[in-house]
Design goal:
The two termini are 17 Å apart. The strands form two sheets. This protein has a three-stranded mixed beta sheet with strand order 1-3-4, with no helix packed on it. It has a two-stranded parallel sheet with strand order 2-5. 5% of the residues are buried. By secondary structure, it is mainly α. The chain has one domain: 3-Layer(aba) Sandwich (Protocatechuate 4,5-dioxygenase, Chain B). Helix 1 packs across helix 2.
Length: 130
């Protein structure tokens, strides 16, 4: 049985429905005041000079244009093979949790968890628990 983490904040932090979310994402990229003012185009370059990025943790209304800069620069090199999503710990209790298999639900479709990478992280870290 595949475990699917539900899109807990769809409809609050970001739009619930795919067409609305796509419009919000495009609007974040094309926002000329706070966003980059352009849409990403993957160049499929060999190699990668940027290995990661940090984007704001807030609703698209508040931080979408700022987050768009991170994604624009990642995609200018090439579309990443794997994306690591770190969630927030608002209380500071317990260990760092990791989902090692299954899917994350999004309005744009489900994202498959990279089980090999997840297991590698679990093996190499004393802090992360499954």
């Amino acid at each position: 049985m595949t475990i699917t983490r539900k899109a807990a904040h769809a409809g609050s932090f970001y739009p619930r429905y795919k067409p609305d979310l796509l419009r919000a994402i495009e609007g974040s990229f094309l926002n000329e005041r706070f966003g980059p003012g352009e849409l990403p185009k993957s160049l499929d370059k060999e190699g990668r000079t940027i290995i990661g990025g940090i984007s704001p943790h807030a609703g698209y209304t508040y931080s979408g244009p700022a987050a768009a800069y991170t994604y624009l620069n990642l995609f200018k090199e090439r579309i990443p093979d794997t994306i690591i999503i770190l969630g927030t710990d608002h209380v500071g209790y317990g260990s760092i949790a990791l989902m090692k298999e299954g899917k994350w639900e999004t309005p744009l479709g489900d994202l498959e968890i990279d089980s090999k990478l997840a297991n590698d992280i679990l093996e190499l870290s004393d802090l992360v628990k499954s």
